[in-house]
Automatic annotation (TrEMBL):
It holds the Pfam family Pantoate_ligase. Beta-alanine binds at Q60. ATP binds at residues 29-36, 148-151, 185-188. Homodimer. One of its GO terms (molecular function) is pantoate-beta-alanine ligase activity. The gene is panC. Pathway: Cofactor biosynthesis; (R)-pantothenate biosynthesis; (R)-pantothenate from (R)-pantoate and beta-alanine: step 1/1. (R)-pantoate binds at Q60, Q154. This is Pantothenate synthetase. The reaction proceeds by a bi uni uni bi ping pong mechanism.
């Protein structure tokens, strides 16, 4: 079932809720893949009905070219969902359904952790994410919303968002979906050639190497190791590699035995920007 208008969606969901169904939301920007499918399946394991929104949100792109090149194929996405989860409600709103007036972000006080990593290199990105999700939560009114840990910093932003807005939705984090070589599933992978897909495995290699080294090496030593790894592969441009305390997501140069840590990475392979992260415990 594909629905374009929020009015039609809300009428459909009102009937479902009156029948006692719980509602799950999987927000996407389309270009659906196995990673999205794992989120949808996880949502079905916890909710009776699942809404998959497909909306390429302009306010979370800080680069106009990146927005323009973002892969879009709504008919292919609809067929993908029909094949795998035919009961899914697919919400494909036009911009005016989400941003009724002008298309711009709200400002949110998410905390200091959004000044690093994605927040540092993609100015305004998280305000854009918060703006669209606040609206989607208002429209769908889901019991739960599901997000992948590949975008772990974003997951924490979304949890902070519902604290700020008070919207009664439970935010559920789901494990990163990877291919058999460890590459995180991403819509941006569609823009990579076959040879680049093979090269992209370097990101997972860097993270697994960092994890193996973490217990016996300093943060500085691990950072140098990762930098050297990327220097040996000139087709890549490493944007950042950060080790952070998981509780605050602020990059650190020291380690404390009682803390959990996570490594984050962003790199360009040609024109395609790829991100990933991994727990170091």
């Amino acid at each position: 079932m594909v629905i374009n208008s929020k009015k039609s969606l809300q009428e459909t969901l009102e009937i479902a809720k009156k029948e006692g169904n719980t509602i799950g939301l999987v927000p996407t920007m389309g270009a659906l893949h196995e990673g999205h499918l794992s989120l949808i399946n996880f949502a079905y394991s916890q909710c009776d009905r699942v809404v998959v929104s497909i909306f390429v949100n302009p306010t979370q792109f800080n680069n106009a070219a990146d927005l323009e090149k973002y892969p879009r194929d709504l008919s292919k996405d609809a067929e993908f969902l029909k094949t795998h989860n035919p009961e899914t409600i697919v919400f494909t709103p036009e911009i005016k359904e989400i941003y009724s007036d002008e298309v711009k972000s709200e400002s949110f006080e998410f905390g200091n952790f959004v000044n690093f990593m994605e927040g540092e290199f993609r100015t305004g990105h998280f305000d854009g994410v918060g703006s669209v999700l606040k609206r989607l939560f208002d429209i769908v009114k889901p019991d739960k919303a599901f997000f992948g840990e590949k975008d772990y910093q974003q997951l924490r932003v979304v949890k902070k968002l519902v604290e700020i807005t008070g919207q009664p939705v439970e935010i559920v984090g789901c494990p990163t979906s990877r291919n058999k070589f460890g590459l995180a599933q991403s819509s941006r992978n569609f823009r990579l050639s076959d040879s680049q897909l093979k090269e992209a495995e370097l990101i997972y290699e860097a993270l697994t190497r960092a994890k193996k080294m973490f217990s016996t090496n300093s943060v500085e030593t691990i950072e140098k190791e990762v930098e050297q790894l990327f220097q040996a592969h000139p087709s890549f441009e490493l944007e950042y590699f950060s080790i952070v305390k998981e509780k605050d997501l602020i990059p650190t140069k020291t380690k404390e035995s009682e803390e959990n840590y996570r490594a984050f990475i962003a790199a360009f392979l040609g024109e395609v920007r790829l991100i990933d992260n991994m727990a170091l415990y």
